[in-house]
Design brief:
By secondary structure, this protein is an all-alpha fold. It is 61% helix and 1% strand.
Length: 468
C-alpha cells in the first residue's frame, strides 16, 4: 500500500549520476568541442578564378596591343646596334682614342664616352657648379667645363638603378636608356595612333628606331629618357589629363634644357582648353559636363599643369645660379665652356653656305657628320608642312616648331643636330601616315634596310667621325 504522504513528493530520478560524472542539469548550454574547420566555399574559388581570368585576359590584350610595337622597335634597334658595334670593332679606331672622347678597351665602351662620361661622374660624385676662368684664355673657351651643364634626372636614375641592381654606373646608364627607349616607342605609337590609326603608330615606332640620331637611344645619353617623358606628356595633353602632363613636363625640365619647347607647348594647349571651357560655361552654365565634373572646376586643372610644368627647369637653373653666385651662371657656363649659345641661326646659316661648296672653315667642322646634319634639317623642313597639313593638336605643333627653332637658332656642334632633333618626334607622324598603306612585309623590309644603314649614319658617324 502506498503511503499518502509520499504521493506528491518530488522525484529525484533526474539527478542520478551522469555517465560522465555530471547530472544532466549541469551540462553547459553550449558546445565545448572545437569547431570544425570550414571547407573552402565554391563561390570564393569561383571568384578567385574569375579574377585570375580577368587579369590574364588583360595581360593578353596588353600583349596584343603593345607587343608588335615593342617587337618591331626592338628588332630594328638591335639590327642597327649590331651594325654599329661591328663597324666599331672592324675599324678599331676607338682603340687609339682617349676613353673620354670616343675610345675605350672594348667597342661598347664608346657608348658612354663624351657626354656619357660626364653623366657617370655626376652619378658617382654629384655636382660641382662653378665659373672657373681658363688661365690666359682668349678664344671661344674661356671657362673650365664642369658637371653643372648636364641636367640631373638621368644621372640620378643611373645611380638609383646601380644601387638597386648592383650594376656599375656604365651598365645602369645603358639599362635606363634602353628601357626608356622602349617606353618612348610606346608613347610615339600612342600619339600617332590617335591621329593616323594603329598601323601608322606602328610605323612611327619603327621610324623612332632608324631616324637620324637614333644611335643615341641605346647609349649613355639622356635622349631616350627625354623623348619618353615628352611624348607621354603630349599624349596626356591630348587626353586632357592635365595634372599628369604637368608632372611629366616638369620631369623633362630636369632632363634637358630643350624642355622649354614642351613647357611652352603645354601652356598654349592649356590656354586653348581654358578658352573652350569658358565658352561652354557661357553656353551651358556651371552644370556638370559629360564626365560628371562641373565646368568651372575644369578651369583649374590646365592652370595647375601650367604652374607645375616649369618647376623642374627653373628649379635646376636657379639652383645652379645660386651655387655659382650668378643667376645666369648656367648660360655663362654653356657659352664659356662649350661655346653653346643662341645666335638666332647665324652658325646654321654659316654651315649651309659653306658645306655645299666644299668649305669647312666654319666653327666645329666635321664634314661627314655635318653632311648628315644638313640632310636631317632638310628632311625636317620638308616634313613639317606635311605635319601641319594633318592639323594635329596644338601641343604637337608648338612643341615641334619650337624644338626646331631652338636647335637651328643655336651655335653648337652642327653635326649634333641629328640627335638634338630627336625630341621633335611629331615629324614621324606624316611619314608614318603615308607608310601605313604598305603591307607588313614591305613595311618591315623598308624599315629593316634603314636599320642596317642606321648603324653607320646614326651611330658610327656620330661617335667616331664627329662629336656626339
Amino acid at each position: 500500500m502506498n503511503d499518502p504522504s509520499l504521493t506528491n513528493a518530488p522525484s529525484y530520478e533526474g539527478n542520478r549520476p551522469h555517465a560522465e560524472g555530471r547530472s544532466p542539469a549541469t551540462v553547459p548550454p553550449y558546445n565545448t568541442s572545437l569547431p570544425p574547420v570550414p571547407s573552402p566555399s565554391p563561390i570564393s574559388l569561383t571568384s578567385l578564378t574569375s579574377t585570375a581570368r580577368q587579369r590574364w585576359a588583360g595581360l593578353c590584350r596588353a600583349a596584343e596591343h603593345h607587343g608588335p610595337v615593342l617587337a618591331l622597335y626592338g628588332a630594328l634597334k638591335l639590327i642597327g646596334f649590331c651594325v654599329f658595334m661591328y663597324l666599331l670593332d672592324s675599324s678599331g679606331d676607338f682603340r687609339k682614342k682617349d676613353p673620354r672622347f670616343g675610345g675605350g678597351a672594348h667597342a661598347w665602351d664608346v657608348l658612354a664616352t663624351w657626354d656619357g662620361w660626364w653623366y657617370q661622374q655626376i652619378a658617382a660624385h654629384g655636382y660641382h657648379p662653378a665659373l672657373v676662368p681658363v688661365p690666359r684664355a682668349s678664344g671661344l673657351i674661356t671657362i673650365e667645363g664642369n658637371s653643372a651643364a648636364f641636367f640631373p634626372l638621368y644621372p640620378a636614375l643611373m645611380r638609383l638603378v646601380s644601387s638597386c641592381t648592383g650594376l656599375g654606373l656604365f651598365g645602369a646608364g645603358l639599362l635606363v636608356s634602353v628601357a626608356a627607349s622602349f617606353v618612348a616607342a610606346l608613347a610615339i605609337h600612342a600619339v600617332t595612333a590617335r591621329i593616323g590609326g594603329r598601323r601608322a603608330g606602328l610605323a612611327a615606332a619603327g621610324l623612332w628606331a632608324v631616324w637620324p640620331g637614333s644611335g643615341m637611344e641605346w647609349s649613355g645619353y639622356s635622349e631616350s629618357l627625354y623623348v619618353a617623358l615628352a611624348a607621354w606628356a603630349c599624349y596626356a595633353v591630348m587626353r586632357h589629363h592635365w595634372i599628369t602632363a604637368g608632372i611629366l613636363t616638369c620631369a623633362t625640365g630636369l632632363t634637358r634644357p630643350t624642355a622649354t619647347a614642351l613647357i611652352a607647348a603645354l601652356a598654349v594647349a592649356a590656354l586653348l582648353a581654358v578658352h573652350r571651357q569658358r565658352r561652354e560655361v557661357r553656353r551651358w552654365g556651371d552644370a556638370p559636363g559629360p564626365d560628371g565634373m562641373r565646368r568651372r572646376v575644369k578651369f583649374l586643372r590646365p592652370l595647375i599643369a601650367v604652374a607645375i610644368a616649369p618647376l623642374g627647369l627653373f628649379g635646376y637653373l636657379g639652383w645652379v645660379g645660386y651655387r655659382m653666385g650668378d643667376h645666369s651662371g648656367y648660360f655663362k657656363l654653356q657659352e664659356g665652356a662649350w661655346a653653346h649659345t643662341f645666335d638666332y641661326g647665324k652658325h646654321t646659316l654659316d654651315v649651309f653656305t659653306s658645306l655645299p661648296v666644299g668649305h669647312f672653315d666654319y666653327l666645329f667642322a666635321y664634314p661627314y657628320e655635318d653632311l648628315i646634319g644638313v640632310g636631317t634639317v632638310l628632311l625636317a623642313l620638308i616634313v613639317l608642312p606635311l605635319l601641319l597639313r594633318l592639323r594635329p593638336p596644338a601641343v604637337l605643333v608648338v612643341h615641334t616648331v619650337l624644338t626646331i627653332a631652338l636647335v637651328l637658332g643655336s651655335q653648337q656642334i652642327f653635326g649634333n643636330i641629328s640627335r638634338y632633333l630627336l625630341p621633335a618626334f611629331p615629324l614621324f607622324i606624316p611619314c608614318a601616315v603615308a607608310m601605313r598603306r604598305l603591307s607588313t612585309p614591305v613595311l618591315c623590309t623598308v624599315l629593316g634596310i634603314a636599320a642596317l644603314a642606321s648603324g653607320s649614319y646614326a651611330g658610327y658617324a656620330l661617335f667616331e667621325l664627329g662629336v656626339p
